[in-house]
Amino acid sequence: MSADASVVVLSRQHQWLPILELAAQEVFEIMLGTQLTLTTKSEPLQQGELTAIVALAGSLRGTVTFCCGSQSAKQIAVRMLGAETVPAEGQVWDAIGEICNMVAGNFKNKLTGLGGVCLLGVPAVVTGQAVRFHFHGRRRFFGNRPDIRGRPARHSSRPSRLTLTFSAVSSREDFAGWPC
Amino acid sequence: MNKIRALIVDDSSVMRKIVERCLRQAGIELEEVFEASNGAEALGTLRNHSLDLVLCDINMPVMDGLEFVRQASTMESAKGVPIIMITTEGSESYVVQALSAGARGYIRKPFTPDQVKEQVLPVLEKKP
């Protein structure tokens, strides 16, 4: 199969979502020792207080974002640093940035036939709610963003909501073979 | 195995702590652990200290891990110091670039302590 053909196969949103889910589940299991439980699609999207963003560039352009509340972010940092540590604010931001980075990388590594080099950006973390993203792309491939709304099991007595989103855009001719 | 002096290079301070913990879990005794948040800082540490092992991320600001490996391979003070990449960049082209630049191993994030052990111990055992 040529690289272009496999890209076309992967370009459908419903085929990307399980890959993103698997990428996120692996990161949570390996790095945090916890399992993500997917919530139903009908649940309303909840704005997180912290948003980590990793950009993808090259033959696949877009962003992977990871949103969660400050308590969830703190619990993630504690799991990464060890229970004996009280994470500083900067370490909490660092921890969710790194989780987002690993999910983005794991997701990218699972996509075959990208037809060229795909680069990951350095993670950025935004605090506050109502964050909006604007893309500078000539074409947008997905009207809807595939997203995962998960609850990390065993993180707290009251499960917390996490939202993971992948949005793909491109203005490059690399995607000439993709259905839009 | 003797106690070692290790340099951990990653722009994430949390990830540097995780890598250090993995080394300890692997049974490696650490005499001293140096940290750097990018390749340029790491080159400075490599110039000024005698090291037994470097574990290095790829995607970092200022100087990335691949450029660090390329420059380190030309430094007299870095001769014989094994560099192992620990990165989210898992594509074959990155592995090839890193290994041809002089890296001795490649660990993909997310990683388990066992994966770190599998890569690091043989490299340390071979070290003269």
Molecular structure report:
The complex is a heterodimer of chains A (180) and B (128). Chain A has 180 residues and is an alpha+beta fold. Chain A is built from four helices and eight strands. Chain A has one domain: CheC-like (Chemotaxis protein chec), CATH 3.40.1550.10. Helix content of chain A is 34%, strand content 24%. In chain A, β2 (50-58) and β3 (61-68) form a beta hairpin. Chain A is globular and about 45 Å long. By secondary structure, chain B is α/β, with parallel strands linked by helices. Chain B has one domain (4-126): Rossmann fold, CATH 3.40.50. Chain B has a five-stranded parallel β-sheet with strand order 2-1-3-4-5, with helices on both faces. In chain B, α1 (13-25) crosses α5 (113-126) and α2 (39-48) packs parallel to α3 (65-72). The A-B interface holds A 26-27, 30-31, 77, 80-82, 90-91, 94-95, 97-98, 101-102, 104-106, 108-109, 117-118, 120-122 and B 11-15, 17-18, 21, 59-61, 87-91, 93, 108-112.
Described by strand count, sense and barrel closure, the largest sheet of chain B is: 5 strands, parallel
Structural domain tally of chain B: 1
CATH third-tier fold name of chain A: Chemotaxis protein chec
Q: What spatial form of chain A do the alpha-carbon principal axes imply? A: globular
The number of helical segments of chain A is 4
Name of the top-level CATH class of chain B: Alpha Beta
Question: SSE string of chain A, helix = H, strand = E?
Answer: HHEEEHHEEEEE
- In order across it, which strands form the biggest sheet of chain B? 2-1-3-4-5
Which two chains touch over the largest interface? A-B, 26 and 22 residues
Highest-level CATH class of chain A: Alpha Beta
Helix-and-strand structural type of chain B: alpha/beta
CATH architecture field of chain A: 3-Layer(aba) Sandwich
Estimate the strand proportion of chain A. 15-25%
Q: What's the mean pLDDT score of chain B?
A: 93
C-alpha Rg of chain B, in Å? 13 Å
Oligomer: heterodimer
Evaluate the radius of gyration of chain A: 16 Å
* Fourth-level CATH superfamily of chain A: CheC-like
Q: Segments of chain B where pLDDT lies below 50 for 5+ residues? A: none
